[in-house]
């Protein structure tokens, strides 16, 4: 559900990310529920005792401003404890991450778009990597999204990746 909500916001969750997160830490998903319906959620995945990663932090649009997002954030932070914590920060939330003690480590760029009219482009809903020369028609149909990998605690003071 969180992946679907994220896609609805225009985020670009990776294919299969949720399954990988769950395999790494089956207890790493936290939800806030009102009358049996999930209204907010977060993944707070622990990778051993020293590193954790926050992702899929989202609240249903009709329930924003009611404290549910903050509740799952606090639960995720408590779950990860004193680990170095990373997250991939969407532009709109970066000031909030800074207020929570996270610092930018490096910037990432994500490109998305549709490979319309390219020879060999997927037409059946399946995706596959394609090489795109700079003269490709794809370059005109691409939107660029900026994000930053944020970390809390030791990760910003040493080279990445900061896996244990």
Structural account:
The chain is α+β, with helices and mostly antiparallel strands. The protein has one domain: Gcn5-related N-acetyltransferase (GNAT) (Aminopeptidase), CATH 3.40.630. Helices cover 21% and strands 34% of the residues. It has a 6-stranded mixed beta sheet, sandwiched between helices. It is globular and about 45 Å long. The protein starts with a helix and ends in a 12-residue tail after the last strand. Residues 132-148 and 154-164 have low confidence and may be disordered.
Which fold does the CATH topology refer to? Aminopeptidase
Low-pLDDT stretches: 132-148, 154-164
For the record, the count of structural domains works out to 1
Order of helices and strands: HHEEEHEHEE
User: Which CATH class is shown?
Assistant: Alpha Beta
Q: What is the terminal separation in angstroms?
A: 29 Å
Indicate the proportion of strand residues: 25-35%
Radius of gyration: 18 Å
Share in helix: 10-25%
For this entry, what is the oligomeric state of its chains?
single chain
Biggest sheet: strands side by side, in what order?
A: 1-2-3-4-6-5
Give the number of DSSP strands: 6
For the structure shown, list the relevant keywords.
164 residues; alpha+beta; Aminopeptidase; six-stranded mixed β-sheet; 4 helices; 6 strands; 34% strand; globular
Q: In terms of topology, how is this protein built?
A:
Blueprint: H1 2-8, H2 17-24, E1 29-34, E2 37-47, E3 51-59, H3 68-80, E4 84-90, H4 94-99, E5 103-113, E6 142-152
Parallel strand pairs: 3-4
Antiparallel strand pairs: 1-2, 2-3, 4-6, 5-6
